[in-house]
Amino acid sequence: MVNMQSPTMSNTNVLTPVNPAIENYMRLLVGRTDHPILTEMETVAKNNNFPIIGRLVGIFLEALTKTANAKRVFEFGSGYGYSAYWFARAVGPEGKVICSDGDPLNKEKAEKYLNSANLWNRVSFHVGLAQEIFTTTEGLFDICYNDVDKGQYPEVWHLAKDKISPGGLYIADNVLWHGRVAMEDYVDIVPGWTEAIIEHNQLIFNDPEFDAFINPTRDGVIVARRKTM
Questions:
Q1: Which of 21, 96, 106, 159 could form a disulfide with 80 if both were Cys (CB 3.0 to 4.6 A apart)?
Q2: What is the domain count for the chain?
Q3: Can you give the CATH number for the domain in which 84 is found?
């Protein structure tokens, strides 16, 4: 039972994985200028309370993709293309980011934004259930990125893990779920979602074919690399 407040706990009974002052410092260190459309996408998210990974995690995804020399990425849950922006930049002109989202309006927005950044030609955007789109897409992937409804996280892991190339990455957002995964007493946004994330994380760390790590930035990003031997 969590029965005391700490400097990183809010009055909504959740934990902030990284102190906000540290994250602000990290943003100051970045000091980079990206395409103006990125700022527009972030403003739309803020004004509409639309969940996006944010600048720090975006830069992290871009660096991971380049480090892995990834050329084929599948996104489970793409929204209006914010994470795809970072992946598409990183895979280069010969790479491909396969996006999925259930809302056709998000596809329209993604096309507008990513066209403005000259990245749309690196993207294949499909409307529908991410899991169904994935199972009908042939071949292996260098990166599978998971950002669907949290109750579906274990299912997505089971689907994705065998279609990741040796040395490739499985990445999932929100794996600390505002600290709920570390608390005995919490109020969930949707009943069962915290339990699903806990199960998902444990499955990954228990899988002998993957090396895994959690970056606690923002809401926690899990990175699991499929072993090559």
A1: 106
A2: 1
A3: 3.40.50.150
